[in-house]
């Protein structure tokens, strides 16, 4: 029998959004840890791989042997994910489009929201990215299909063309929305989201609204967390610890200092950065550079909130960033062991592909607007 809570961990598998980082350090090594851990604990994962980065690397392999090595390591790691039995789906950071390489650095654009790109650009990038993944993976998994997408920097607006392009290329699950999220500088506004917890069929022209009819695409919201004073105290103590430790960063991979134009590149402008009014500060369930006590209390809060939700099967989507795992391996291990021990009787882990198959069988798992 299926358990009540279905935990969906989706890892945004990427280097830094401003183009910095090395595939070996930020992608291969931490994801290898996560794969081995999940395999030992019998946990299913979905890796949302940023293909735009890889398309750009492929353009430059003939000029830079270092990038050639990283490009091949990326490919081999994705195949390793499949070898371990994990799901691989699509993640796109469109600011990589038209990137330029100069003096060992990639200079990216500053439009992080895929919804803001033209219909033609969306169509082309989705098509090329899916083709890249399917050409890479189908030799080892002939049945492989790209069916899920996570918006880079949560950017999915305007949603009309974007969702229709997703549907056109067979993508059925779209993620990135969260109750209360508003990032004006990135064109993201989910403050009028009509459904905060359950998957729903969206109105394509405004994905914050629930459709009155079934669609080919469904939206799964990120689960909201209000850390409060207790949670923020855990984070503050951990930030202080990190500052004191002064561990090496990825910058030692570069011969020159990081250009200011790259360091300052961000989807969150100064005027729209999330504020910290303590108790009222909202974020979402995530696994990355958070200490175990924070991970534990955040998950407990979500499980408690969802306890009265009138559905037999409730997905809990968790955003993950393996690129942030350095120094947090033991925290992540403890957290997953804790979830299995405390909630194993009511919760199980699933991949996005498996979740989609389940929704196709059951008609009552996706919300429709009712009269």
3D architecture notes:
This protein has helices at 23-41, 51-60, 65-83, 119-137, 160-168, 228-245, 260-263, 292-306, 329-343, 352-361; strands at residues 5-13, 46-50, 87-92, 100-102, 105-107, 148-151, 173-175, 182-183, 188-189, 202-203, 206-210, 218-220, 224-225, 283-284, 286-287, 314-320, 347-350. It has 371 residues and is an alpha/beta fold. The protein has one domain (5-361): Glycoside hydrolase/deacetylase (TIM Barrel), CATH 3.20.20.370. Strands 1, 2, 3, 6, 7, 12, 15, 16 and 17 form a 9-stranded parallel beta sheet that branches. Strands 4-5 form a two-stranded antiparallel sheet. It has a two-stranded antiparallel sheet with strand order 8-9. A hairpin with a 2-residue loop joins strand 10 and strand 11 (206-210). The longest helix has 19 residues, at 23-41. It is globular.
Considering the chains and any ligands shown, give keywords for the structure.
TIM Barrel; single chain; two-stranded antiparallel ribbon; nine-stranded parallel β-sheet; alpha/beta; 10 helices; 371 residues
Write the layout of secondary structure elements.
Blueprint: E1 5-13, H1 23-41, E2 46-50, H2 51-60, H3 65-83, E3 87-92, E4 100-102, E5 105-107, H4 119-137, E6 148-151, H5 160-168, E7 173-175, E8 182-183, E9 188-189, E10 202-203, E11 206-210, E12 218-220, E13 224-225, H6 228-245, H7 260-263, E14 283-284, E15 286-287, H8 292-306, E16 314-320, H9 329-343, E17 347-350, H10 352-361
Parallel strand pairs: 1-2, 1-16, 1-17, 2-3, 3-6, 6-7, 7-12, 15-16
Antiparallel strand pairs: 4-5, 8-9, 10-11, 13-14
């Amino acid at each position: 029998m299926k358990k009540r809570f279905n935990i969906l961990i989706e890892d945004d598998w990427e280097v830094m959004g401003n183009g910095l980082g090395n595939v070996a350090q930020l992608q291969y090594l931490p994801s290898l840890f996560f794969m081995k851990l999940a395999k030992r604990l019998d946990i299913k994962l979905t890796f949302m791989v940023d293909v735009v980065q890889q398309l750009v690397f492929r353009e430059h392999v003939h000029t830079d042997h270092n990038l050639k090595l990283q490009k091949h390591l990326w490919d081999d790691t994705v195949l390793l994910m499949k070898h371990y039995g994990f799901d691989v789906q699509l993640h796109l950071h469109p600011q990589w489009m038209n990137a330029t390489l100069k003096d060992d650095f990639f200079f990216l654009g500053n439009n992080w929201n895929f919804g803001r790109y033209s219909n033609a650009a969306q169509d082309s990038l989705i098509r090329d990215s899916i083709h890249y993944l399917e050409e890479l993976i189908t030799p080892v998994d002939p049945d492989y299909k790209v069916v899920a997408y996570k918006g880079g920097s949560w950017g999915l607006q305007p949603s009309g063309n974007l969702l229709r392009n997703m549907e056109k290329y067979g993508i059925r699950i779209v993620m990135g929305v969260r109750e209360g999220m508003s990032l004006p500088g990135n064109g993201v506004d989910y403050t009028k989201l009509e459904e905060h917890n359950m998957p729903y069929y969206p109105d394509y022209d405004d994905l914050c609204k629930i459709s009155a009819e079934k669609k080919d695409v469904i939206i799964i919201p990120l689960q909201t967390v209000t850390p409060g004073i207790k949670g923020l105290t855990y984070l503050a103590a951990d930030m202080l610890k990190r500052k004191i430790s002064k561990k090496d960063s990825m910058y030692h991979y570069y011969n020159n200092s990081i250009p200011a134009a790259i360091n300052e590149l961000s989807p969150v402008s100064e005027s729209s950065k999330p504020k910290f009014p303590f108790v009222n500060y909202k974020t979402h369930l995530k696994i990355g550079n958070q200490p175990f006590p924070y991970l534990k209390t955040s998950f407990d809060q979500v499980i408690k909130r969802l306890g009265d939700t009138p559905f037999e099967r409730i997905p809990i989507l968790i955003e993950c960033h393996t690129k942030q795992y350095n120094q947090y391996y033991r925290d992540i291990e403890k957290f997953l062991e804790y979830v299995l021990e405390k909630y194993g009787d009511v919760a199980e882990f699933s991949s996005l592909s498996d979740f989609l198959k389940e929704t196709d069988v059951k008609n009552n798992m996706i919300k429709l607007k009712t009269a």
